[in-house]
Structures are given as C-alpha cells and as structure tokens.
Specification:
By secondary structure, the chain is of the alpha+beta class. The chain folds into two domains: about 180 residues, Nucleoside Triphosphate Pyrophosphohydrolase; about 60 residues, Orthogonal Bundle (Arc Repressor Mutant, subunit A), CATH 1.10.10. About 25% of the residues lie in helices and about 25% in strands. Strand 3 and strand 4 form a beta hairpin.
C-alpha cells in the first residue's frame, strides 16, 4: 500500500490584522488584488482526496491559498503557503490556470470571516476588493503530511473528490480545472509527482491512474501501455506470501524524472 498527494493553490487568509494580537498586516506589504490558490490532492491507496479548510464560525469551506509579498516571487509565496499548510518543503508544484472573473470575489463572505474571528475589518479593508488568483497544484507525500489550519480556520481535513462540501467563491471551478489538467497530462506529469514510493508495483501505479481518471482500467492493457512508454525500470520482486505470485517492483527512470522536474512550472 502506498500514499501520495497532489496539491493545487487557493486563496489564504492567514496573514490578517487582528484585534486579538499585536501582529499587524500592512496591506502595503503585499501586491494588491493578487492571490494564489492551492488545490491539494491526496491519494490514500484507494480514494483521491482534497485538502479543504473550514473558516471559524462561518460554515464556509475553501481551498488553502494566500497572498504575495512585495519582496517575494509568486512561486516563493506559493511554496511558503504550502509549507505552512503541510509542513513540507521541496515538493512538486505546478501553476495551471489564472482565474479573474468579475464575479469571483465575495466581499460579504470575506467580511464575515474577519468579523467572526474578531479581526479589524477597516484595517483589512483591502481584502474586500476584487482579487485575481493564480492557481497551482502541489504533489506531496501523503504519509508525511500533518495538515495545519490557520488562525481563521477551525479545521483543515481531507475530503474524497466526490464528497466535497460546497466551496466558497469559485473554488469548485478551480478544483474541476485542476482535475481536468491533471487528467489531460497524466502520463507527462506522473513521473515527477512524487506520489509513489521510490519503488512500486504495477498494481499500485494502476490504482493511481484509476483514482485520477475515475474509472477502472483493464490490467493487461494498462501494463502493456505503460511498459511501452519506456519510462520504468524493473527491479526485484516484492515477496509478500506466495513466491510464485510476487509482483515485480518498478521505479521511474532518472532521465524522465529530471525532464519532468524541468517542466514543472507552467503558465
């Protein structure tokens, strides 16, 4: 059994000025009207899941995300946000779309989040404005993740892809787009995803495909197709019971991993 996680980036509200603490968020420290959002997909060996947070006292659910400081790059801001949510660094991270609809922002929901957490709305008024968000997905090791909610959230938990709660703003659209991009580019992206252990069985690899595509695949057809791509290196057998039924272990060829990592950031 193995575990993995994919991640896509969404607006985070954890850097806000609050009446409860001495910490102050100065709007001038951030790039106005620009945010990033993260969709975090996780695979527990059977189900594809997404990391979702719930804002305190509001019943509002959202994908984790954040804002870009004036002294940091967009990519560094996203990495910082993912690390704060998961505790992980050096992960596979990819930009997949920009969302800028005139109707995507929801000032009333933002105001409610601030008020319910006793934040000074007037000092954080810049957060009520329209935001264009850049969406990312990150791929991280499921077993190593310890999800951490921010100061505005009661919880941050995993939800099965087909059992997601209703999400605020356009976050459902962002999830759908992320899943579409992943499915359309699965064979190109899988090598660098870091979703599998360093060595895995063909059955484990097939389960990843089935979870992402949302359909069962014929074992013989899948195996023939994957082996024909010439991206795997075969190793010793994995002995767990009957020796004659032990499956071979595989790993991705290093040259394919390097190519995938070079192409991980897209527009």
């Amino acid at each position: 059994m193995f575990s993995w996680i994919i991640v896509l980036n969404l607006e985070k509200l954890s850097f806000l000025t609050t009446k409860k603490t001495a910490q102050e968020l100065h709007g001038e420290d951030f790039i106005y009207n620009l945010s990033y959002d993260s969709v975090i997909f996780g695979f527990n060996g059977k189900l594809l899941k997404i990391l979702i947070l719930e804002y305190h006292n509001t019943g509002l659910f959202a994908l984790p995300g954040g804002f870009v400081k004036r002294n940091e790059s967009l990519e560094d801001a996203v990495k910082r946000g993912v690390k704060e949510r998961t505790g992980l660094e050096h992960i596979y991270l990819e930009q997949f779309h920009t969302f800028g609809s005139l109707t995507r922002s929801n000032p009333s929901a933002m105001k409610r989040i601030l008020e319910e957490n006793d934040y000074d709305v007037k000092r954080n008024e810049w957060l009520l404005d329209r935001f264009i968000t850049v969406a990312y997905y990150a791929l991280i090791n499921y077993d190593k993740v310890s999800p951490k909610p921010d100061s505005l959230s009661d919880s941050i938990n995993w939800y099965a892809i087909d059992e997601l709660p209703s999400l605020m703003m356009d976050h459902e659209q962002i999830v759908e787009k992320a899943l579409q991009v992943l499915r359309d580019n699965l064979e190109k992206k899988l090598v660098g995803m870091n979703l599998l252990p360093s060595k895995f069985t063909m059955k484990q690899l097939q389960k990843v495909y089935e979870a992402i595509l949302g359909e069962e695949l014929r074992r013989t057809t899948f195996q023939r197709r994957i082996l024909g791509m010439n991206i795997l290196e075969r190793h010793e057998k994995l002995f767990q019971g009957r020796a004659h039924k032990a499956p071979y272990l595989y790993s991705f060829k290093s040259n394919n991993i390097n190519k995938s990592q070079e192409q991980k950031i897209t527009t």
